[in-house]
Amino acid sequence: MSGKKYRCGLVVGKFCPPTKGHVHLIEEAAKLCENVEVFIYSNPDPRRMDSFSRSMLLAKSLGTSYIENIVNGARVRFWPLDHTHTPPHNLAPAVEHRKWVQGRWEYLLGKKRPDVVVGAEDYMRKFASHLRTAYVQIARIDDIRARDIRANPYDHLETLPAPVKQFYFNDYVEKVTFMGAESTGKSTLAQMASIMYGGRFVHEYGADLYIERGGNLDSKGHVEIMRGHLEREEQAKRHLLSYNYLWVDTNPLTTLFYSYYLTGTAEKELRDYCNNFGGLQMNYRHFFMLPINIPFDGRNMRGPDGETRKMQHAMNIMMLEQREIDYVMLGSRTIPERLAEVKDILDKRRQEDYNPTGII
What we know:
α2 (51-61) packs across α6 (162-169). This protein is of the alpha/beta class. The protein has helices at residues 20-32, 51-61, 94-109, 124-130, 146-151, 162-169, 186-197, 205-212, 219-238, 252-263, 268-275, 277-283, 308-322, 335-354; strands at residues 6-13, 33-40, 70-71, 74-80, 116-119, 134-137, 174-179, 200-202, 245-248, 286-289, 328-329. It folds into two domains: 6-165, Rossmann fold; 173-354, 3-Layer(aba) Sandwich (Rossmann fold), CATH 3.40.50. Helices cover 45% and strands 14% of the residues.
């Protein structure tokens, strides 16, 4: 015998994001029960921190693996109940959530009810009563609400376990890359966006290397550009003090184009990175294409000339669409108009990805 009071307990919540308070709750449930089942769901479910991601973050925060979870001598299992389980909307009446969780429990575990529900809120008492089971309320270790953390996680880092902090400092930082032919305003737009909306502008490594080498770059030099620029982005990312964006006026696709344009070939490393889903598409969250709707500035270093940039524009679109990369073609002409257009799109995506309407 384990000496624990209950054989099987249930902890249920959105855990969006997982906090030290949630970790404490599960640890306390594990002290009471031989087995703890943790149901994790939200409808809507944030795209960039979905129920599976939150399950992984909780497991890591408890110092466990995802499949075999032993906490305080208890077996702890995480159940990310995503849209395939058709959870009720977060704003649905509480009784719908109670019935749905009861149905999921019976379906997944083949049991009528848990021996105990463990929670940190008074309203969970009614949930346990609906299941006709015991309820143990664990004292909260903080007063912060998840909605306040989602609004700005960097104001509440002290409430987050290390893996969740790492998520916000790594995955939560998003790279915005501007693509376009020569003389379409990419660098100016990226620089102004970093000033207006925060984050960091990452200066193009290739331009520096081009000047340093006097324009003498072979295909291997373009691999150097890719490596150097990606490292420059990672350095900038580590110096962000709050969630925000890295604004980039280039990416390896642009380097791939110039490698072919200037040398007639491209090295396998550069080609592989641009064709690998785990590389280019995963590294940049937002692709914006700038149209050819401003006058050509003939001072550019590498060519193409004013006519050839139409070809470059078409090549950029082709490279993105061949790789099925989602991009937005900006329609405005002036810098203020473009900045407003970009901000509107990013604000909507940020809401959908991390804090969709209806998460309470």
